[in-house]
UniProtKB/TrEMBL annotation, chain B:
One of its GO terms (molecular function) is ATP binding. Pfam families: ABC_tran (PF00005), DrrA1-3_C (PF13732). This is Efflux ABC transporter, ATP-binding protein. Keywords: ATP-binding, Nucleotide-binding, Transport. Residues 2-229 form the ABC transporter domain. PANTHER family: ABC TRANSPORTER, ATP-BINDING PROTEIN (PTHR43335). The keyword Transport applies. The lineage of its organism: Bacteria, Bacillati, Actinomycetota, Actinomycetes, Propionibacteriales. InterPro entries: AAA+_ATPase (IPR003593), ABC_transporter-like_ATP-bd (IPR003439), ABC_transporter-like_CS (IPR017871), DrrA1/2-like_C (IPR025302), P-loop_NTPase (IPR027417). Belongs to the ABC transporter superfamily.
Amino acid sequence: MTIDTDNGARQRVDQHGDRSRTDSGTGEGRGAPAWLLVTRREVLAKLTDRTFLLGTAVMVALIVGFMGVQAWQSESTSTYTVVATADAVPMAEAVAEQAPSIDDTVEVEVDEVADEGAARAALRADADAWLHPGDDGWVLTTESGEEAGLTRVVETVVRQEVLDDNASEAGVSLAQLERGTQVSPAFLEGDAEKAGFAHAVGFAFVFLFYIAALLFGMQLASSVIEEKQSRIVEIIAAAIPLRQLLAGKILGNTVLALLQVLVYVAVGLVGMAFTPYKTYVAGITGPVAWFVLFFVAGFIALACLWAVAGSLASRTEDLQATTTPLTVAIMGVFFAGLFLDGRGQVVASFVPPLSAVVMPQRILAGTAEWWEPLVALALLAAFALVTVRIGERVYRRALMRTGGRVSLRQAWSTAE
Amino acid sequence: MLEIRELTRRFGTTTAVDRVTFDVPAGQMTGFVGGNGAGKTTTMRMVMGVLGIDAGEVRWDGRPITRLDRRTFGYMPEERGLYPKQPILDQLVYLAQLKGMPGRAARREATLLLEGFGLGDRTRDHLEKLSLGNQQRVQIVAAVLPRPAALVLDEPFSGLDPAAVDSMADLLRDYTRDGVPVLFSSHQLDLVERLCDRLVVLSSGRVVAAGSVGELRESGTPRFRLVGGADAGWVRDLRGVDVLDVEGGDVLFEVNEPGAEQGVIAEAARRGTVHEFGRVRPALSDIYREVTA
């Protein structure tokens, strides 16, 4: 008797119930490999999950918002109204003219007033300052507090103008007088602003890794326990090797985490182009690429352990207990990324999984030799390989154990 | 044919399954009964390869079973639940694909089977939105996609109402008719008696009875019942019989020597009227109670 299985494979069943496959049977080696099917399901299930999409959107909105605030702060200018009597108008107009070149956030408008009384009245109304000659130089009168931005601009312009006049009177040009007085800034330790920027980006790296490792890790662990608890894993285990299930789950979550982090990084970099830090964007693309590599290796190393944590539980309620060691470890990585410096940072930048966040920071700060990231990445990848191997063994054994939480020792030594 | 040979599994110091041997012939429904903790689920998990085997073997087609063979089996594990928060059709297609079925064929077949269960309009619903009975129907669809070479079902009827039991049984018969061996476990003896061709009774990890329902009822010491006019106490004095119960002219006895019952009926006819004489076949539940006691 022949049963057409309707899937392209034909199975022969003879009188004795003997059956032999006439081709590769129901599909081993045909179509997509099992791990790829699992990966696809993990990714699709997540991409159609409203919570996940919403979370990502909120994060993107936060980054955009942060960049927007930065850009807005640098763009916003203050316009000051300066009143002056006729004799002081030329000086006030010189201030108005030169203000943008001294401080691009300061804009000055000049209002001419008839006399001192009118000037005082204008100040009490809506003028910001009154520029007038004093006994010894010039006076910038405001209603009460000093307007720092305006004062700096006025000081510079007045000084320049008066110097110019004085120089002419003395029969020399200002340029001659100023020759050799220029002081150019130079930094032995590098630009403090740039260093601050590197620090901020480094913090962003640590934060992104921490969030991804924790959120995706937790999701991975709970999807493992979901499969174990519902016993769907038994159906899957009868169909494909568990190794492939694990590989697919880890790969799927890694792809998702990577996609998400790439979106964040892209939005961040593009947004940065609209902020005063735009000049640094070109300089950090290299470190960002390194960060992505370290992120992937570090994520895979931890992902396998998360899967183990999930498989050790027997119900969702146990997850809290089985994932605690990992949560603590990831906190450790987080704090190492935030607080280590000097020798401690150098050592940590080679120690997996700390290196996942510490080395990118050193690359950013420019304190790593060219070979150091390569060595650290190799060590991290080796570490990932070890956790995957150990994790696979424990996962396979713990997954089929029911009735209560499984200890690591039991899972390791138990027969399959 | 699926053959289970001397299958043994220990958990620590307890032996959950102890040298279990039985057959699941092609085209027959084999019921697997036994109390809680008798070892049914453990045995089925070993058959499906999701639990390691300490000793013994599972044979398929007359040779040791391989992973590829098991891949063609349909399996329904003990606790129900696929992915609760995924549309039912999607996960059925996914599981069928894992077994090597092309996606399009899986989608078509799964839709047909769901329609057969009256779930044609719910294919996009999340599993958790369905009633328990309907979830179970989805579960059986998962087991029979792609068309299985054998079916191993752990408690497929639990939680189903009588109508659902009938439609599930009809579905299973479709497969046995095509020569598929079906092994299913159950607590419900009446159901097993009604549906099964064969029966395997497990107690404390051992097979205590196995065979067709008829064979089991015929097995054991034959029992007869005689109802005559006068007091039947005299039966006790005959050779080759053991009297179990006497009440006036009504006697129930076991025969130790083949043919001894003929002596009883001849003697009864000589002594007077015989109202009734016949073989007493125990109900399945009696056999079950006896073998698991």
